[in-house]
Design a protein that fits this description.
elongated, Alpha-Beta Plaits, alpha+beta, single chain
């Protein structure tokens, strides 16, 4: 390298140091340092943009088992067992409704004696499940509020092999 190239390289390093310290250089009539500062700033903006994009894209989706409002309850079976009135858990919608203001889905397993149903009801909002929550004759847990151990302990009285990890409906 020639002497002139070394001077330019030294000047670029000094300008990088100065721009890092946020000191403004008055215009001396030459524009090469402006180009260097612009280049350095463009690099920093690019790095900041890429870092932001990595953070935004790195967010994970919520597990579908925890989306919507979910209630786990022990309810009696209702219905006559006919096609017009099938045997189903109490509060289970029949006929199936397309109303998004009500219960969207439910999953149930019978108790060991067959008299009760262990049910998970799913709705968009809590008001759709208010009738279940207000019923004092049944055992009710709000998923995400009650602990897993409390739910499993209470429901193992009705079904010995109950496991909350294998129980519930997955909504898209």
């Amino acid at each position: 390298m020639s002497q002139r190239e070394f001077q330019i390289a030294d000047s670029i390093l000094v300008l990088d140091l100065i721009s890092t310290c946020c000191i403004l250089i008055p215009d001396t009539g030459t524009h090469w340092y402006s180009l260097v500062l612009t280049y350095i700033m463009a690099q920093r903006v690019l790095v900041a943009f890429l870092a932001l994009a990595a953070v935004v894209c790195a967010q994970r989706r919520v597990d579908p088992r925890f989306s919507y409002v979910r209630v786990i309850a022990v309810v009696p079976f209702v219905g006559q067992g006919t096609p017009a009135d099938p045997k189903r858990p109490e509060y289970a919608p029949w006929p199936v409704s397309q109303d998004h203001g009500g219960i969207l889905a439910y999953y149930h397993e019978p108790s060991d004696d067959g008299r009760f149903a262990l049910v998970e009801y799913v709705a968009y909002n809590r008001s759709a499940l208010q009738a279940i929550l207000n019923d004092t004759s049944i055992t009710v847990f709000i998923k995400g509020v009650a602990s897993k151990s409390a739910i499993e302990t209470a429901l193992k009285q009705y079904r010995k092999d109950f496991n909350l990890d294998n129980f519930g409906v997955v909504m898209p």
